[in-house]
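In response to the reviewer comment on reproducibility (Comment 2.3), we provide here a single inverse folding case reported in full, input and output, so that an independent group could reproduce the run without further information from us. The structure tokens appear first.
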């Protein structure tokens, strides 16, 4: 059976897209081996001391510069902007290394602690509920599937999927995309959260999470007011700078954070070698969920300890997608098990040796997707398997 290439899905399709292959031997075996690793090593799947220490460091990178700003010790405008840059680095660090694990339920075996740390996203301007739906439910389940995975959904001037309609300006996206990456965090917290919550409610995704839409709107609005108050209101009251200088500092912080987040997340799925499967007319994806993750996900810079530490193991995207309920501090050890098992069953284990290789691979795809006559969708489309 052939896949459909020129087809646009809607968010409602997430209710009907399904993985229909019954070849579950790979993930069954992999699960057994991972479970045995934790059992034989006598260690928890959750955070350890190094993870707790990292959590403290990431929050310090964000809140210590903030405290210095409002203390009045740095009335120099250049110092103010430099501290906002550091806050941006801390903001991205909290998102990648703390909030991310917590909202996957991987930080602790205590749900209340995961919830508490997960709401750190609200503390820094985002919304934990929206993130869980967009990331945990849609992206992790339907990775690189057009119209369902919002990470590759059309975003204004950017084209991240060969199944997205081509526009003439896309031919230049390999140049201008890098500028727009910096806007990711700012646009998210200032605009997108509101539209996303309304859309998720309309699509029935809020109800599926067993929560109340009025509760989620109350949390979103209350946390946004609190965030704007301490990030913009208080500095305007205590600092001798003009309103636009303070807003520029706020924007600078988010631009730094947004750029970091984008260049870490994009090479994991929008990179040469990854695939963009579409369901058939019945909504069927002819693979198991686990094997689908191997085809649509790529690791990078696995031996770069400093990068791995800062980005919360997100350079181990294969392991993260297969075991998102495991704290990222364990991904390096798990990677050997995953790679061996994938190769044993004849499945791909995609990785880029260095971070710059991942960036090069992402640039290649941006260029390819900028072509009107790109053959990427056909080239990367996996064959249907018998079930």
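Designed residues, in position order:
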């Amino acid at each position: 059976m052939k896949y459909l290439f020129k087809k646009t899905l809607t968010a409602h399709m997430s209710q009907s897209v399904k993985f229909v292959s019954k070849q579950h031997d790979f993930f069954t075996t992999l699960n057994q081996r991972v479970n045995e690793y934790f059992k034989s090593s006598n260690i928890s799947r959750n955070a350890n001391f190094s993870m707790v220490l990292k959590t403290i460091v990431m929050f310090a990178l964000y809140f210590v510069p903030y405290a210095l700003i409002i203390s009045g010790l740095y009335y120099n405008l250049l110092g103010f902007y430099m501290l906002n840059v550091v806050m941006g680095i801390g903001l991205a660090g909290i998102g990648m290394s703390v909030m991310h694990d917590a909202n996957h339920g991987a930080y602790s075996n205590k749900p209340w602690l995961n919830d508490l740390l997960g709401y750190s996203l609200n503390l820094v301007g985002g919304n934990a509920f929206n993130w869980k739906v967009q990331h945990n439910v849609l992206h992790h389940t339907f990775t690189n599937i057009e119209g369902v995975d919002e990470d590759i959904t059309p975003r204004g001037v950017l084209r991240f999927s060969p199944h997205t309609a081509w526009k003439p300006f896309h031919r230049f996206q390999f140049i201008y995309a890098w500028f727009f990456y910096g806007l990711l965090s700012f646009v998210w917290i200032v605009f997108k959260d509101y539209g996303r919550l309304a859309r998720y409610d309309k699509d029935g995704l809020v109800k599926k999470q067993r929560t109340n839409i009025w509760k989620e709107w109350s949390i979103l609005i209350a946390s946004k007011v609190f965030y704007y108050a301490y990030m913009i209101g208080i500095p305007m009251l205590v600092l001798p700078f003009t309103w636009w200088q303070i807003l520029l500092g706020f924007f600078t912080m988010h631009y730094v954070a947004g750029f970091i987040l984008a260049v870490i997340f994009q090479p994991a799925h929008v990179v040469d070698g990854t695939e963009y499967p579409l369901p058939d007319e019945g909504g069927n994806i002819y693979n198991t969920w686990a094997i689908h993750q191997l085809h649509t996900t790529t690791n990078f810079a696995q031996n770069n300890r400093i990068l791995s530490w800062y980005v919360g193991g997100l350079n181990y995207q294969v392991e993260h997608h297969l075991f998102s309920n495991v704290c990222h501090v364990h991904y390096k050890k798990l990677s050997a098990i995953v790679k061996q098992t994938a190769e044993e069953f004849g499945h791909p284990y995609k990785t880029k040796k260095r971070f710059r290789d991942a960036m090069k691979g992402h640039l290649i795809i941006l260029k390819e997707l900028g072509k009107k006559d790109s053959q990427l969708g056909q080239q990367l489309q996996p064959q249907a398997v018998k079930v």
